[in-house]
Amino acid sequence: MSREHAVEAWAGFLVLLSVALREFVHPGFAWFTAFVGFMLLQQAFTGFCPMTYLLRKLGVKSERELALEQR
């Protein structure tokens, strides 16, 4: 799995988790959903994503790096 796909999967997981927490624990968890959405939006404009930084440190390769390996 590439770093880009891992970020998308993680964001989707966090959204589903926050919806479940809002439904079963406390309505205040809607702010968590809003935070995840804000981070996705700012990443689209700035290119900065803390999760990407963490995944890079963990050694997860980007799609470009994986494509270069296949050559």
Question: What does this entry look like structurally?
Answer:
With 71 residues, this protein is mainly alpha-helical. It has one domain (3-69). It is 76% helix and 0% strand. The protein is built from 4 helices and no strands. The protein has helices at residues 3-24, 30-46, 50-57, 63-69. The longest helix has 22 residues, at 3-24. It is elongated. The protein starts with a helix and ends with a helix. The model has no long low-confidence stretch (mean pLDDT 94).
Summed up:
With 71 residues, the chain is mainly alpha-helical.
For this entry, give a set of tags.
mainly alpha, 4 helices, 71 residues
Shape call:
elongated
Percent of residues in helices = over 70%
- Total number of strands: 0
List low-confidence stretches. Answer: none
In DSSP terms, counting alpha (H) and pi (I) runs of 4 or more, how many helices? Answer: 4
The Cα radius of gyration reads 15 Å
SSE diagram, text form:
Elements: H1 3-24, H2 30-46, H3 50-57, H4 63-69
Helix pairs in contact: 1-2, 1-3
